[in-house]
Amino acid sequence: MGHAPVQEIVEQAMTTHKGLAAWVGEVAALTLPDHIRWVDGSVEEQALLTDHLVAEGTLTRLNPELFPNSFAAFSDPKDVARVEGRTFICSENERDAGFTNNWMDPAAMKDILNEKFAGSMRGRTMFVIPFVMGPLDAEDPKFGVEITDSAYVVASMRIMANIGTDVLRKMEDTNAFFVPALHSVGAPLAPGEADVAWPCNEEKWIVHFPEERSIFSFGSGYGGNALLGKKCFALRIASVMARDEGWLAEHMLILKLTSPADKTYHVAAAFPSACGKTNLALLEPTLPGWKAETLGDDINWMRFGKEGELRAVNPEAGLFGVAPGTGWHTNPNAMAAISKGNSIFTNVALTDDGGVWWEGMTKEVPTHLTDWQGNDWTPESDRPAAHPNSRFCTPIDQVDMLSKDYFNPEGVEINAILFGGRRKTTIPLVTQARDWTHGIFMGSTLSSETTAAATGAVGVVRRDPMAMLPFIGYDAGDYLKHWIDLSAKADQARLPKIFLVNWFRRTADGGFAWPGFGENTRVLKWVVDRIEGTAEAVETPIGFVPAVGSLDLTGLDVSPADLADALRVEPSEWESELAGIQEWYARFGDSLPEQLAEELKDLKARFGA
Ligand SMILES: Nc1nc2c(ncn2[C@@H]2O[C@H](COP(=O)(O)OP(=O)(O)OP(=O)(O)O)[C@@H](O)[C@H]2O)c(=O)[nH]1
Ligand SMILES: O=C([O-])CC(=O)C(=O)O
Ligand SMILES: [Mn+2]
User: Fold this and answer.
1) Which residues form the active site (predicted)?
2) Are residues 18 and 100 in the same domain?
């Protein structure tokens, strides 16, 4: 790691937590780093690390007048997204990983990992990051410790989670259990060997041991592959904890709405990666008198409270948002948060004045940029300037519309749940479920076109139950059963109403049928009015859709034809949709909850099929 100052303050601050001390010792003996640094989470340390990363060429410092204390990173072009094909759930029994996960025998996997991690940190500094997902003052705080040989991961984890000495002390005081999360970019350095800007390994392993509650990640430095508090812990491992402890770990945003009548509502929404969570979480309402505040944009931990109400907290401390499409005209709240600085951008383009740019940031396209791969770029270039999965990583407390309830360990009561995907056809703008179980059916059959957030083909329709397909840490049928069983703890009158939404339906000419973004306020208003029982709906075989005139379109320039396209329930499209659902459900085999098989039967009957 060169001669940067980061090496001079290592191997301090050992721990009195015996389990942690032992694990750190074991990992060091296996991975053979040159140095160990216990991450304290301080501002000074972050400055030291980012200075170091700038000196090494991993980060580019942005113009502080545009983006103070902010940096751009450019990854290896083969390390730009989550690698679902290389992600494993190694439960003791294969059955418990279910058909949606890759599985390998835990002992066989441990052998592979031991070989991969042996000496993998040679020539590098090993960082020990104590972290907590969710509030440190929660009744039962969820601790983790990430060991990584990437300073970029440390700097990003400091934005995404609560990390450092305070967390470590609390873990020590309570001798707390923690999720051990070991990460290596898998690129050891020989003595004197020069490093590259983005070290990684062609071979990637993202592995979870659900019974042990441990995580191993090898070969990638990117996003959900490497920031292990996020998808690996807060969704995959947490979903298993949630199953065992009676709660839910979900891929959902949390949004607070205040109506003109000054009534508040909380909405949770599950959309697959790159399908609009961060945008809806930071909604700028377009209807007068409505106020939106955010609590979370990606992950939501929910449990039923003492009164049978469903309560939600966001376990994350930052936004790791899709950059393309984020602009002052689409998502001004995200832009304002980013503009305060303290952010790390990955795989965006650079402007000539030391700022960042991506497709959709401004309506006017700059005449010259440096693209994410370091090449000159002009509007005539035939490739995007920013990678489609380029990201901004920004502290959530820089969001002006952040609800003060974000900091409340008790969370907020959820009144409505939205499931949504990216579908060009078939799925109407909004459909209300007939009841709770039908809503779970809607979630379980959710489908979406694939995006650049994961490697592989883009635009292919796949089923994505509750937007959790890549994140359910156990058998998918058991997961759906858990959703059904949990509601026994609920006050049935306070169960959230469930809705299916689709902002992405197309018209015959290929354009979006619905303007989306801030205009989604109108759909949320309809949702609230349905909760209040004041909006009219038409009952269709798939659920309740807005009656003509029940969506508030005041001041909106949308043609009646486009609106009809957005809301249509088209039997011919549903014929193939039913076949798709049937095929999907068949894959669950015995583990499909019978209530859901029943729901499918009823749906088919309503279509006369
Ligand atoms: N047409 C349309 N596009 C949208 C809308 N909301 C979001 N998008 C676009 O969809 C892409 C992804 O949006 P995000 O809000 O970042 O998605 P996300 O679900 O937070 O993604 P992850 O962070 O990967 O989980 C961006 O390019 C957005 O501009 C909408 O209402 N309409
Ligand atoms: O995990 C990542 O790399 C980014 C992300 O939020 C997602 O894909 O949903
Ligand atoms: Mn997001």
Assistant:
1) 275
2) yes
Q: Is residue 265 included in any domain, yes or no?
A: yes
CATH number at residue 346: 2.170.8.10
Distance CA 217, CA 405 (A): 33
Element (H, E) at 130: strand 125-133
Encode pLDDT of 215-247 as tens digits.
999 999 999 999 999 999 999 999 999 999 999
Q: How far is the CA of 420 from the centre of ligand 1 (A)?
A: 11
Q: How confident is the model at residue 360, as a pLDDT?
A: 97
Determine the pLDDT at residue 548: 86
DSSP per residue, 365-406: PPS-EE-TTS-EE-TT-SS-SS-TT-EEEEEGGG-TTB-GGG
Ligand 2 centre and the CA of 606: distance in Å? 37
Place of tokens 């050992």: 14
Domain of residue 346, residue span? 319-398
In a domain, 178, yes or no: yes
Mapped onto helix, strand or coil, the DSSP state of residue 345 is: strand
Instruction: Establish if 229 belongs to a structural domain.
Output: yes
Ligand 2 site-directed mutation target among 160, 320, 458, most atoms within 8 Å of CB? 320
The 10s digit of each residue's pLDDT in 466-509 is 999 999 999 999 999 999 999 998 999 999 999 999 999 999 99
Distance CA 370, CA 352 (A): 8
Q: Are residues 482 and 529 in the same domain?
A: yes
ipTM comes to 0.98
208: Cβ below 6 Å to ligand 2? no
Is 467 a member of any domain? yes
The pair of structure tokens assigned to 27 is: 């990992």
Phi, psi (deg, nearest 5) at residue 505? -70, 145
- Sign of the CA dihedral 223, 224, 226, 231? positive
Domain endpoint, select from 213, 246, 279: 246
Please give the pLDDT value at position 3: 39
Structural domains counted in the chain: 3
Looking at the fold, whether 487 and 534 belong to one and the same domain comes out as yes
